[in-house]
Every structure is written in C-alpha cells, then in structure tokens.
Design brief:
alpha+beta; Phosphorylase Kinase, domain 1; Aminoglycoside 3'-phosphotransferase, Chain: A, domain 2; 2 domains; 3-stranded antiparallel sheet
C-alpha cells in the first residue's frame, strides 16, 4: 500500500500525470520503466464517485506491472459529492483500503494508492483493473451460480473479520453510537415523503404499506443489532461485484465500492443481497439453500458460536435494511433514469422480501424486549 500526505495526490483525472503514476507504482514494481503516456475513459454507473480507467504506456517492458488501472475520484455531481462528504463515504472507503484491506486478505481488487482530504471531499483510490471480470447488474438480477460465488466471497469477508477487536476499535468503522443512529433515523424519516411523492406511480400499495408500518418502528429497529459483529460492506449487491473468469485467485468474486463499510451484524449484508439480487420468484426458490450455503461457508472458515437458527432470525430482522437503503440513497444522490429504475426495483424487491419472510413478526418480539430494557434503565 502506498501512503501520501493529503496534499500529494491528483484531485481529478485531468491532474493525473505519468510521473505521478510511475512514482505510485514503483514501490510495487521496483524495476518499472517510466510511464510515457496515459489515457482516461469514464467507466461504471456509480453515482457517489467518478471512476475512470487509465490506460498506461511505458518506456520499455512493464513486466508484471499493470497496463491499465482504475482510479476513483469524488462524484462530479455537487449533491452526490456533498452527500459523500457528509456521510464520510470517501473517508470510509479510503480508510478501508489503507487500514483493513492492506492487512487482512479479502476478496477485493489490489489497491496501489488511497488518500483523502475529509474536509474538502477530495480523494483518490488507485486499484487494479480487473480485466475480463463480468460486472454484476442490479437490474438484470443474479444467476444462482453468481449468487453462490458472491455469498462465498461475503462469508470470506465476515469470517476473516469476525469479532476482531482491532477492527471494532476503529472509530471510522464502528460508528454505531446513539448520535449516529439518531442521524440515520432522522434522515430516513425525512426522506420518506419525498420518496413516496417522487415514485408514487411506480410503487405498489402493499409495498407502501410496509414502508408506512416500518417508519414508526425504525428508531427501535436501529437499536437492535447485537454481537457477534464483523466487517459489513453495507451495500452488498450485484452492481458492486466483479465475477471472475479464468483468473488465478482464491476467490471467484471481488467486491468493490466500500463507501458504506461499517462494523455490525454480518447477516445484514446477506439479507440485503438476497432480498435485492433476484426477482421475487427466483429469490423464493433459492433463498433457503443460499442461507444454508452461507452458514456452511462460515463454519468451513472457522466461525463458531452462531447457530443456523440465529442466521435465519437475523436474516429476517435485517430484511428491512434494503428498504432503508433504497429510500435514503434515492434522495441523496444525483437523479438519473437508471437510478430511478434501480431504486424503485430495489424498494419493491426488499418490501416484498419483508412480506414473504413475515419479518414484522420477527421484529416485534425483539422490539418488545428492547422496550423492556429501556424501562428497566429508567
């Protein structure tokens, strides 16, 4: 991993230059010839960041050095960028690569540089360009084979970080304090009217009723997470996955876009993925087997002390997380036609997931227990 002072990195693709990239790559490839030229092209559909593929030309053979890189910059849209700063999204992703991925083997692209100025929102992450990988597509849904590869990667992330105290102590990662929860609840509740007004014609009445019922329960729901905890991706869905082909790697899926990483209940990632990655009929067919697959993968990687019954219960409890994300994200980032389609699709799938799992019946006993705890402390 390459580290630099806040002032010492390009702020936009236009500021990238061959000498800076050569300096950045040399610690990883000591015999690297000078970078002679570069060419940038926009890539991806992300709304919180501006990603470019950078093709490199060298004065000589680069050996094992990359012929192209992926560089991540802040969003060009002022609203999305302001959101990234307010939620510390750019700072979180930068710190993830600097402090977590650099020390623990995880299914992520190799990182060559990561730095951020949290005051201005300027950041830059330089990653390997995983050529030949097939990016996931939230709107097209996952195949069962892709889902199993994704869940295998998710179990690897959770198992590698399960209850690790050095991660739990990271302030930027473990943000589950009362003030943080209150901010999330306040924003979600404020975002709901605008979401319903914007997308009224695209939403089914039964799904809106789920949102209406959950709205008043959300404050207590946000207090329910309990150990064991692990590294959470926070937005683990097909758009943020790269499916590998013919690649020498211990993983068949790489996970990108770590701007929502946190320390919390691992089953929230699984429920979010399964609830949003499929059309409802496909999800109903695959869900039980995928839950078993995840639990078995955890155990194969040495995780003990969490029963399959606990996994099933938490899977239902955190089915609501997809609703929170769909509503909040829709109102936080630049509005685009694909974004509108995606957020409506996400909301419908996650609301139906809640209904199919009868998740309110799991939520209510937990909330009653939590209310009793509150009263005992008064």
């Amino acid at each position: 991993m390459s580290f630099a002072t806040v002032a010492n990195f390009p702020r936009s693709p236009a500021e990238l230059d061959p000498s800076w990239l050569h300096h950045t790559l040399t610690p990883f490839f000591p015999d690297l010839p000078p970078v002679r030229a570069l060419q940038c092209e926009r890539m991806g559909t992300g709304q919180m960041g501006h990603n470019v593929r950078v093709a490199l030309e060298y004065d000589g053979s680069p050996g094992l050095a990359p012929h192209s890189l992926v560089c991540k910059f802040p969003s060009l849209d002022p609203m999305s960028r302001a959101t990234g700063v307010a939620l510390r999204s750019y700072e979180i992703e930068t710190n993830f690569y600097r402090q977590v991925a650099s020390r623990i083997q995880l299914p992520v692209p190799r990182c060559f540089f990561a730095s951020c100025d949290p005051n201005t929102g300027h950041f830059l992450i330089v990653l390997e360009d995983v050529r030949g990988a097939e990016p996931g597509d939230q709107l097209a849904s996952c195949t069962l084979a892709q889902a199993r590869c994704a869940i295998d990667a998710l179990a690897a992330i959770h198992a590698a970080t399960w209850e690790r105290p050095e991660l739990a102590s990271l302030e930027w990662l473990n943000r589950s304090n009362e003030e943080r929860r209150a901010q999330v609840v306040q924003f979600f509740q404020a975002a709901v009217p605008g979401f319903l007004d914007r997308y009224a014609s695209a939403l089914e009445a039964r799904h809106v009723r789920v949102l209406d019922e959950f709205l008043s329960l959300m404050p207590l729901w946000s207090e329910l997470p309990r150990p064991p905890f692990a590294l959470q991706h926070g937005d683990f869905r097909p758009d943020n996955l790269l499916f590998l082909r013919n690649r020498s790697s211990p993983y068949r899926t790489l996970v990108v876009d770590w701007q929502t990483a946190s320390w919390g209940p691992p089953l929230a990632d699984l429920a979010y993925f399964i609830g949003g990655a499929f059309e409802p009929d496909d999800r109903r067919r695959y869900e039980g087997d995928l839950l078993v697959f995840y639990w078995e993968r955890l155990r194969r990687r040495g995780v003990r002390g969490v029963s399959f019954i606990r996994c099933v219960e938490d899977h239902s409890l955190y089915a609501f997380a997809g609703i929170v994300m769909a509503v909040a994200a829709a109102m936080l980032v630049e509005r685009t036609p694909r974004g509108d389609h995606m957020f409506c699709t996400m909301f419908a799938r996650h609301a139906q997931h809640v209904l199919d799992l009868q998740a309110f019946s799991v939520l209510e006993p937990r909330m009653v227990a939590r209310l009793r705890e509150h009263r005992s402390l008064e």
